[in-house]
Amino acid sequence: MKVRKKRRSGLLVLYLAAALFSVSASGCAFVNVTLYQPALPLQEKVIEGEGPGKVLVMDISGVLTYDEKKKGGSFKEQVNLVARVKEELRKAAQDNEVKALVLRINTPGGTVSASDLLHHEIMQFKKKRKVKVVACFLGMATSGGYYVASAADHIVAQPTTLTGSIGTIAFKFNVQGLMEKVGVEEETVKSGNKKDMWSPFRPATSEEKVIFQRIIDEYQSKFLEVVRAGRKNMTDSDLTTVKDGRVFSGTQAFRLHLVDELGYLNDAVQWAKAATGVPKAQVIIYHRPGTYVDNIYSKSQGEALSWADRLQQGELLPQGPEPRFMYLWLP
Predict the structure, then answer these.
(1) How many other C-beta atoms lie within 10 A of the C-beta of residue 127?
(2) Extents of the domains making up the chain
(3) Among residues 315, 319, 320, which one has the least CA distance to residue 110?
(4) What are the tens digits of pLDDT across the range 102-111?
(5) Rounded to 5 degrees, what are φ and ψ at 328?
(6) In which residue ranges of the chain is pLDDT below 70?
(7) Rounded (10°) angle between helices 112-129 and 81-93
(8) Quick one: pLDDT at residue 300?
């Protein structure tokens, strides 16, 4: 009897498979196969320490943007930076053992909106949880990266880091000359004479440049307000020096009070422990399941596209007539 049941079960599977194939081949069925594995919830990984208390190390690297991207060689879905930071902060806010936050920053900056939103979320977390925040600059923490770091109570920078580039930039291509060479004309019907401002198909008028310059100046004023609020030991002379957009080495930044200490990520972790009175605190990282996490330099999720890759693929360049206002160092 057992043998017959197995045979009947096997035949049933074959019949079902044949029926499914027949329906699919006739065009009456559509099979939707998703190649990307949805992002799984964050998990906590203890890097070192016994407790009590926890120090969370959060990675802020790459271009600061909230664009949704599923590029690269991995079939795992990549959560955009802003969404991932928000997710980590929410998880940390629910854990009363988290006493301090270390921002591990390695970024050239990004969009004005993403930079501002990251800074806002970190400030809200500080206000809600009353925790200390320390930022550590690795290879680069320029423009929007410094904007985000201004939310920290203390900034540590490697001597060889590049930082600064405090300023706002927006640019576009003017392809009118190229179109004339290839014999292509563009026609636009618009409701107002400024409806197509910043169009790549014609030069901007003097009036339009003034309008956009006012927006740039407004975002620049916002940037300087954030720096003043976060860096109370900076003098007016320091601020005058740094606000023209130039970059600085870690040592130069220390002299200008852009950073508080020259050191490394371990120094930032030790400052966080000392500032919160938890010398034996566990140092933790939130990460996606399946992500290799071994030390405080490990990523919280798979490798995202670098800023150079994003530039090569056109993500940092103007998309049609859309202006991209950036807190970004892009030499």
Answers:
(1) 9
(2) 1-33, 43-328
(3) 315
(4) 999 999 999 9
(5) -145, 135
(6) 1-38, 68-78, 300-323
(7) 0
(8) 61
8 Å CB contact between 318 and 326: no
Provide the whole-model pTM: 0.81
Q: How far apart are CA 187 and CA 222, in angstroms?
A: 37
**What does the pLDDT read at residue 193?**
85
Catalytic residues: 143, 195
> Tokens representing 76?
């795992």
Question: DSSP 3-state assignment of 307?
Answer: helix
Contacts of residue 101, defined as CB under 8 A and 6 or more positions apart, other chains included, come to 55, 56, 58, 92, 122, 125, 126, 131, 132, 133, 134, 272
Q: Which pLDDT score, from 0 to 100, does residue 66 have?
A: 82
CA–CA distances in Å: residue 208 to residues 177, 193, 195, 202, 325: 20, 10, 11, 12, 15
CA-to-CA separations, 137 to 89, 293, 309, in angstroms, rounded:
20, 20, 21
Q: What is the pLDDT of residue 37?
A: 61
C-alpha 147: how far from its chain's center?
12
Spatial CA neighbour of 175 closest among 320, 313, 311: 320
Assign domain 43-328 to a CATH class. alpha beta
